[in-house]
Design brief:
The complex is a heterotrimer.
Chain A (H helix, E strand, L loop, with lengths): L10 E12 L36 E2 H13 L3 E2 L4 E5 L9 E5 L5 E7 L5 E11 L3 E5 L10 E5 L6 E7 L6 H18 L11 E11 L9 E6 L2 H20 L7 E6 L4 E4 L12 E2 L10 H10 L4 H12 L3 H10 L2 H9 L4 H11 L9 H12 L5 H14 L3 H7 L7 H14 L1 H8 L4 H13 L6 H13 L1
Parallel strand pairs in A: 12-13
Antiparallel strand pairs in A: 1-10, 1-11, 3-6, 4-5, 4-15, 6-7, 7-10, 8-9, 11-12, 13-14
Chain B lengths: L10 H9 L5 H19 L2 E4 L1 H16 L11 E5 L26 H8 L3 E6 L33 H8 L5 E6 L5 H7 L2 E4 L19 E6 L2 H11 L29 E5 L12 H16 L3 E5 L7 H16 L17 H12 L2 H14 L5 H24 L2 E5 L15 H5 L6 H6 L3 E8 L5 E7 L5 H13 L2
Parallel strand pairs in B: 2-3, 2-4, 7-8, 7-9
Antiparallel strand pairs in B: 1-3, 4-6, 5-6, 5-10, 9-11, 10-11
Chain C lengths: L10 H17 L1 H5 L18 E2 L9 H5 L5 E2 L2 E5 L7
Antiparallel strand pairs in C: 2-3
Classes of the chains: A alpha+beta, B alpha/beta, C alpha+beta.
């Protein structure tokens, strides 16, 4: 499943993730330009997002709301906040400073619980503006070796929330699950379409390693330009092994920002260490502080949809579904159906098994009532599990009533007495095989089951068949 | 030689005459342009004269008046704009090579408001580069000369606007004031100059120097004219987050009310008791102003603002720090001058090194230093605390006084080159004006006689936040007592 | 420091500036000496909070007007010399 290698014995992976999320507002953070992906270059610009001399920023109320919503969905405290200028020169930055939040961010101290119960600590989720986009011409299209670059400021000023975890992730699976879960939360709350392929969600990984048992943190590298969840795994894997190789050679990694090259499957050094930036942060004088009211936060909490973790927990606690099935159902959006059918009296595990095994492509036209009816028929023994699967398929494709469909297909539950007669006949016809079965040869069980299925044209319930066979062999 | 016209027509008179059809906007414009053609070559108030546009505006106003259509409260008033305010399609340079030829694609809010009031823009005036200076000697396009004596500076940074009004090129002008850049040139040129409450006038379209200090304000011959302009340009602007949301205090409402019973505090530190270097003739004129107000019915007494002595130091940490950040955008990428380089960083450096003058570079370096890691707390951080201290002093004073009084500039107009050798000597020009920028309070300069050299002296009236009504009231009284 | 500000200063300028900066900072020493532990820094003189606008689209600029002012452009984008090093 995973193409990543295990770390050599004795080493532990330490990862912190910084995920930038573009908020799905209609307009940019500081101006009324459209927040739109894919427009013609430099057509969604104005004096403010171009940073023209004399321009000024005015905060987008919806962006603030979305940021607080995201914070609360991550269990953060929502704080009074102040915007700050982060000063550095780069051509995709219209003002050559980025307006962000530094000492007093909107959201702090959150947590995200993964499906397996692991909790990722979230230090902060702050608001900032996105930069423009540069493309490099000449060379191989990568930044080094280019002849010149072209800049499009459509993206400049788009509202971002940067979510920063503590360095508490120790497996690649958790790193990937975290980002996947984060995306689910973003979609559930409606604050972003979180499409990594379009750049509306971008992940940077801070990677270091340490000897197992140590709790000190060693030198970390920040890996940027990771464009998919799969790349997260590959990048972390590569980087961790790079660090270990350095340590094993008596060397050590330098603290630096590195650039992930997906095609080559390796990270490359970014800026050299001499260019260590002093961002000279100070409070943005053109913007006033934000002071979220308790009413605003309460309104956000009241409107919060049920988040994936809560949905998984409901399936486990209420419907008795096991944790793995619960995760799968929530991922597919089938949990509400499972819960509803349990409320109608059906057995949660059976419902879950049918959904996970037989409805991978979705429930289609299946209604709660029909599903409940089907499960009732099955649990009463009136339908075998194979028959139930067939009926389910019909219900999903075109709806209807389960009993009617079953009757229409000529399904009727096999009488156990009839089965026993069949078994007797088979024992008579195949004494040698029966002898082997009674002595414990499990392989020959399949033979008998197959014979019964042939004789009943598949209508026997496999579970019941095995029960009868075992009972016969024992008795 | 003085190039100051004897009896310039006031803006209020012009607006009334034009609206009534008694005088045409065009004839008024022509009279002002005639003076420009006569003496601008000696004064150099303008970076750019908008002859065609001004004539078109004036003609359009005359057409509307003739057709019986309504016109705005500043109909036909010729106005000059400091060249750090964006005018769409018209060069806006901040008197810097780095913006030479740049034509903004939008208008500053104040420009829109003047247009809506039917004022006629004559041109863009000269300034110290990026508004950094107190003499207009830092302009990349040559200095402006004081119309009272062309061997002397007009003050700065809004020297061009002050001179344009003093020389009769425009009836009124707009400048910007970050540490005294309206009030000090007003004092040196013998005109009225106002820095409104921070947030009273929109900064949208004002090319930023120090964002938490900058304010746009009027120059005029009379307090009433300044009030007319103030009331036209002030008021909430949704495009400026720091814009005061409520309606601006009226500057015009109490002009004729007199000063009977008002409590006026004469700031002792600025009258020689704490701050050094204020010229005796300036002190004398300020005292005379205080005495005159007392005789007119106000209660005048000394007041101490102890933290005022720290204003200069705090300002010269805060302003350059914000400026160093505000001026980063001039990188040769999107507009303005570009000097090529092997890569973008080299292009940035070459462009900025070539495009910025000495004073601008000095302040950018100072500001970068004040903000840099390791120095933030000692410099910028502390300076921001000093602002609070100064504000506390003023708030306390305003419990006992309605307005305060002080000299505007420590000296009258000085000769060119006098103060350029050592930056500190130039910086001291702002010592009386800076505190109001640090607190955000309004303050204005009113001409009050001349110094021992016959050159104009300005007296500063200071008021609490949004105290324009009482400030203009006292200023009007002072004007009448000259 | 000069590189942080993208300014190249000649040796003379560097010396002069260092001296002048020193003067200003010396003057600022009286600020440095103040005990201001109990004082809040003032970043804004306007006592406003929560200044926001509605999430509604407003007019954008005409691209030609904008690019007409650019020192160099190509295909509707701003053109710059090669960028060394990744974004910080």
């Amino acid at each position: 499943m995973s193409e990543e290698r295990d770390l050599p014995d004795g080493w532990e992976l330490v990862v912190g993730l910084e995920v930038h999320v573009e908020l799905g507002t209609a307009t940019k953070l500081f101006c009324g330009c459209p927040n739109q992906f894919g427009s013609e270059p430099n057509t969604n610009v104005c004096p403010t997002c171009l940073g023209l001399p004399g321009s000024l920023p005015v905060l987008n109320a919806t962006a603030i709301d979305y940021a607080m919503r995201l914070g609360r969905a991550l269990g953060c405290d929502v704080n009074p906040s102040v915007f700050a200028r982060k000063n550095y020169f780069y051509p995709d930055m219209p003002k050559d400073y980025q307006v962000t939040q530094y000492g007093l961010p909107t959201n702090t101290d959150g947590r995200l619980e993964l499906a397996d119960g692991f909790v990722v600590i979230i230090e902060r989720a702050h608001i900032e503006e996105d930069t423009g986009k540069s493309t490099h011409v000449g060379g191989d299209g990568r930044i080094s070796g280019a002849d010149y670059s072209l800049v499009d400021y459509n993206r400049a000023g788009v509202p971002l929330v940067e979510i920063v975890t503590a360095p508490v992730i120790h497996t690649i699976e958790h790193a990937k699950s975290y980002v996947a879960e984060l995306r689910d939360i973003l979609l559930a709350t409606g604050v972003s379409d979180a499409k990594m392929e379009e750049g509306s969600m971008r992940a940077d990984a801070n990677v270091s390693v340490r000897p197992v048992g140590s709790d000190a943190l060693r030198t970390r590298c920040e890996i940027k330009n990771i464009n998919s969840i799969r790349s997260i795994g590959r990048a972390i894997d590569y980087e961790a092994h790079r660090h270990i190789d350095l340590y094993n050679n008596g060397d050590a990694p330098r603290q630096e920002t590195r650039h992930w090259d997906e095609a080559a499957g390796r990270s490359r050094p970014g800026r050299s260490k001499e260019d260590a930036e002093d961002y000279r942060y100070f409070a943005e004088p053109d913007l006033l502080p934000l002071d979220p009211t308790p009413e605003a936060v309460a309104a956000i909490d009241a409107a919060m949809p049920t988040l994936p973790q809560a949905r998984r927990a409901a399936l486990v606690d209420v419907a008795g579904v096991d944790a793995r099935d619960a995760a799968l159902l929530v991922e597919r959006g089938q949990d509400e159906l499972a819960l509803a059918v349990v409320q109608a009296g059906a057995n949660g595990e059976s419902a879950a098994k049918h959904l996970t095994n037989n409805l991978a492509d979705g429930a289609g036209a299946l209604t709660v009532a029909a599903f409940a009816g089907l499960l009732a028929l099955e649990s009463a023994g009136k339908l075998s599990s194979t028959q139930a699967k067939t009926v389910l398929g019909v219900l999903a494709a075109s709806g209807g009533d389960p009993a009617a469909i079953a009757a229409g297909l000529g399904f009727e539950a096999m009488d156990t007495a009839e089965l026993e007669l069949l078994v007797d006949q088979l024992i008579t016809d195949h004494p040698v095989e029966w002898g082997r079965f009674t002595e414990g040869d499990k392989k020959v069980q399949g033979f008998f089951v197959g014979q019964i299925m042939k004789a009943t044209k598949g209508q026997a319930d496999g579970k019941v068949v095995n029960q009868v066979l075992n009972a016969r062999a024992a008795g | 030689m003085s190039l100051v016209p004897e009896s310039p027509q006031s803006a209020t008179a012009i607006a009334a005459a034009v609206a009534a059809g008694e005088q045409s906007a065009r004839s008024i414009l022509d009279a002002h342009v005639a003076r420009v053609d006569q003496t601008e070559s000696e004064i150099h108030a303008f970076n750019h004269i908008m002859r065609e546009q001004a004539m078109a505006s004036a003609d359009e106003i005359d057409r509307r008046v003739a057709a019986g259509e309504p016109v705005g409260p500043m109909a036909g008033v010729p106005v000059a704009l400091k060249d750090n305010m964006c005018t769409r399609g018209v060069p806006t340079t901040c008197s810097s090579r780095i913006l030479e030829g740049w034509e903004p694609p939008y208008n500053a809010t104040v420009v829109e408001r003047l247009a809506a009031a039917d004022a006629v823009v004559v041109g863009k005036t000269n300034l110290d580069e990026f508004a950094m200076g107190s003499s207009t000697e830092n302009s990349a396009f040559g200095p402006t000369r004081n119309p009272h004596d062309t061997s002397r500076v007009p003050g700065g940074s809004s020297g061009g606007s002050a001179a344009a009004v003093a020389a009769g090129f425009a009836a009124v002008a707009l400048g910007s004031d970050t540490g005294g850049s309206i009030r000090q040139p007003a004092a040196l040129c013998g005109v009225v100059g106002v820095k409104p409450t921070y947030g009273a006038v929109s900064r949208y379209g004002l090319i930023a120097f120090a964002s938490s200090l900058d304010q746009i304000g009027p120059f005029a011959h009379t307090v009433a004219d300044a009030a007319l302009v103030h009331d036209t340009i002030s008021g909430h602007d949704p495009l400026d987050s720091t814009s005061i949301p409520s309606a601006a205090a009226s500057a015009s409402s109490d002009l004729a009310r007199g000063v009977e019973g008002l409590r006026i505090g004469l700031i002792s530190e600025m009258m020689g008791d704490g701050i050094e270097g204020i010229a005796p003739d300036v002190l004398a004129r300020t005292q005379a102003a205080a005495d005159a107000l007392g005789a007119a019915g106000a209660h005048v007494s000394p007041v101490s603002i102890p933290a005022a002595i720290y204003g200069l130091s705090a300002y010269y940490l805060v302003a350059p720090a914000e400026a160093s950040s505000n001026l980063s955008r001039y990188d040769g990428v999107r507009y303005g001058q570009r000097v090529d380089g092997a890569n973008v960083a080299q292009m940035n450096t070459a462009t900025r090194t070539s495009g910025f003058g000495e004073e601008v570079k000095r302040r950018i370096m100072l500001g970068t230093y004040a903000l840099s890691a390791g120095y933030y707390d000692a410099y910028y951080g502390k300076a921001q605390k000093v602002r609070t201290l100064i504000l506390e002093n003023f708030d306390k004073a305003y419990e006992d006084f309605d307005v305060l009084l002080s000299p505007t500039s420590p000296c009258t107009a000085f000769p060119f080159g006098d103060k350029t050798a050592d930056p500190m000597t130039m910086y001291v020009n702002d010592v009386c004006t800076i505190p109001s920028n640090l607190t955000g309070h309004p303050a204005m300069s009113v001409p009050f006689g001349v110094g021992s050299d016959g050159l104009p002296v300005g007296v500063q009236v200071l008021a609490p936040a949004q105290g324009e009504t009482v400030m203009f009231r006292v200023a009007a009284a002072l004007e009448a007592l000259r | 420091m000069a590189y942080l500000a993208r300014l190249e200063l000649s040796q003379d300028e560097l010396e002069l500036f260092t001296e002048q900066l020193g003067d200003v900072l010396e003057h600022a020493a009286d600020v440095e000496a103040l005990d201001l532990d109990h004082v809040e820094p003032m970043a804004h003189t306007v006592p406003l909070r929560n200044v926001v606008r509605a999430d509604v689209v407003t007019a954008t600029l005409d691209r030609d007007e904008v690019l007409g002012q650019a020192p160099a452009s190509e295909g509707g984008q701003f053109r710059v010399p090669r960028i060394l090093g990744e974004e910080p």
